[in-house]
Amino acid sequence: WVLSAASALVVLAFLIMATMTGKRMAEKMRQYGNALAAMSNEAVEYVRGIPVVKTFGQSVFSFRKFKRAIDEYEKWVVSYTKQLRVPMMFYTAAINGVFAFLIAGALWFTSGGVTNEFLLNLVFYIVITPVISLTLTKIMYMSENKMIVEDALGRIDSVLNSAPMGVSDTPVSPADSSVELDDVHFSYDGKNEVIKGVSMKIGVGQTVALVGPSGGGKSTLASLITRFFDVNSGSVKIGGADVRNIAKDELMNTVSFVFQNSRLIKASILDNVRMGRPDATKEEVMAALEAAQCGDIIGKFPDGVDTMIGTKGVYLSGGEGQRIAIARAILKNSPVIILDEATAFADPDNEARIQAAFAELAKGRTVIMIAHRLSTIRDADMIIVMKDGQVMESGNHDQLLEKKGVYYGLYQNQFAGIET
Fold first, then answer.
1. Measuring CA to CA, which residue among 324, 403, 398, 336 is closest to residue 364?
2. CA–CA separation, 66 and 72 (whole Å)
3. What distance in Å separates the CA atoms of residue 39 and residue 260, rounded to the nearest whole number?
4. DSSP 337-389
5. Roughly how many angstroms between the first and final C-alpha of the chain, as a whole number?
6. pLDDT digit string, tens, across residues 288-339
7. Among residues 125, 160, 189, 134, which one has the least CA distance to residue 14?
8. How do residues 370-408 score in pLDDT, each as one tens digit?
């Protein structure tokens, strides 16, 4: 029993260390993990931005954000280490010192002579004690990993447990592809309104352009139409039905959104386009690619439409990626199309091809275009000029030039120098 008690000192040391750490260590581990994640994210962002940083000579200033993340990580590493220093020192000393107690016990028992039974007991405890300490150490590291996993799952649950947008018990379907906004107000933070009483009517099959200075609320308005956010007051209707009363799947099938920076997944060009309609045949995908002016993209790769995009595959330019995204929207065949700065990353050649793709995409559909390049929206049925979350003026290109208002100023800024 003396050898057994000496061997059990390892267990006692482990229990004392667990008592000394407890919930405080869990909080320290959470903060440490968050600081490590933040530093890793900042490191990736900093490395990716080095070309831009060097171009504009901002290396010292751009490093400050990364340096703050490193300093924050250092603070929690030091705090975490200091918190563990005493209990770990005690635990390590107990593990490494247990054999001294076994030797002391052995001397005590052998004062009257050594027996075979004693030798068997001594060998057993010399073997089992390291096994116990190794098992407890593994449990300790598993507990640490458990804290890391719980923190990660907590962050995931905070997203999954967020209250979903309300869904109507009696969903309605849009009667057509018209879009109507009635006195729409919206704020991201509940304090500062970014959309201030906007009203507009877009008829079936019309092409409408939203233009204006940056920060005017154009992209936010498009997000409200697709119900990425809900309005604070007023209403957004598609085909006479409030978007809040349209079933989610039906709304997503009614509206297609081509973003400013379209995301292509790590998959073949075929699969990227087929995301618009998963049950589409290869022939339908090819027809959509042809309509989106993507023939030159497919033609330059040996594997054609089966070419992989992304890691260990090919990378497309911004304009080429936009055309693939437009092909996806054509394949989806939604009655309402929203184009958010879809020519932003296009060179002149790609822009011409994208414009041709737009013409094909717009056939028989209601199109809402957000644009800074006014050359791309001259032929729109209606141009709505937004500034500071409000509609400042509306009309076609010629009408707005005659008013000599906000649109006229934007046009002059873009084209006056070219025309002279």
1. 336
2. 10
3. 28
4. EEEESTTTT--HHHHHHHHHHHHHHHTTSEEEEE-S-GGGSTT-SEEEEEETT
5. 102
6. 888 888 888 888 888 888 988 876 667 787 778 888 888 888 888 889 988 8
7. 134
8. 887 777 788 888 999 998 899 999 998 888 888 888 888
